[in-house]
Automatic annotation (TrEMBL):
It is a multi-pass membrane protein. The chain crosses the membrane at residues 12-34, 40-71, 83-105, 117-135. InterPro entries: Tic20. This is Uncharacterized protein. Its main location: membrane. It comes from Parathermosynechococcus lividus PCC 6715. Keywords: Membrane, Transmembrane, Transmembrane helix. Belongs to the Tic20 family. GO terms for cellular component: membrane.
Length: 157
C-alpha cells in the first residue's frame, strides 16, 4: 500500500538502512544458530558499521533519540522514511524487552533447551521481519507487520 506519494530511489535506500538497527540488536541471540550454521555469520558483515558506532558509550540512547527527533518527528522528511524508521525502532524496543525477559528466565530457571529454542525463535522471527521489511521498502511499499505497523502508524501519522 502506498500513502500520499510515490517513493523515490533514495527514499527506499534510506528506509532500508533503518532496519540495520534491529538486525544489530538481534545478533547476540543468534549464537546457537551461528554455531550450527556458520554461513549465517555473514550477517555480521552487514551490521559491522552499526557495531562500530555502538562501541561509543551511550550510543544506543543517542542514536534512538536522534532518529526519533530528527527523522520520525521531522515532517520535511518523506513519510516513507519516517514510517520505516519508526517501525525499525519499535522492532528494537521489542527486542530489548525480549532480551530482558530472557535474562530473567535464565536467572530463574535453567532450562537450557527451552532457552535455545527461545533464542532461535526470536532471532529467526526478527531476521524474517527485517528481510520482509527491507524487500517491501525496496519495492516502495509500506511493510505491514501485524501489531507493529499499527503502533508505527499511531506515532507517524
Amino acid at each position: 500500500m502506498t500513502w500520499r506519494a510515490t517513493t523515490t530511489i533514495p527514499d527506499r535506500i534510506f528506509a532500508c538502512l533503518a532496519y540495520l538497527l534491529p538486525l544489530f540488536y538481534v545478533m547476540p541471540l543468534g549464537g546457537f544458530l551461528f554455531e550450527m550454521f556458520p554461513p549465517l555469520q555473514a550477517l555480521f558483515i552487514v551490521v559491522l558499521p552499526v557495531a562500530l558506532l555502538y562501541s561509543i558509550p551511550f550510543a544506543g540512547l543517542i542514536v534512538f533519540m536522534l532518529l526519533y527527533l530528527l527523522v520520525v518527528r521531522n515532517s520535511r522528511i518523506s513519510l516513507f522514511i519516517r514510517y520505516n524508521t519508526m517501525q525499525a525502532m519499535l522492532m528494537g524496543i521489542a527486542l530489548f524487552i525480549a532480551q530482558l525477559v530472557l535474562q530473567l528466565l535464565t536467572r530463574v530457571a535453567s532450562f537450557e533447551l527451552l532457552m535455545k529454542v527461545l533464542f532461535n525463535f526470536i532471532f529467526i522471527a526478527t531476521v524474517a521481519g527485517v528481510i520482509f521489511a527491507v524487500v517491501q521498502s525496496i519495492r516502495g511499499i509500506y511493510a505491514e507487520i501485524p501489531t507493529l505497523s499499527d503502533a508505527t502508524k499511531s506515532q507517524v501519522f
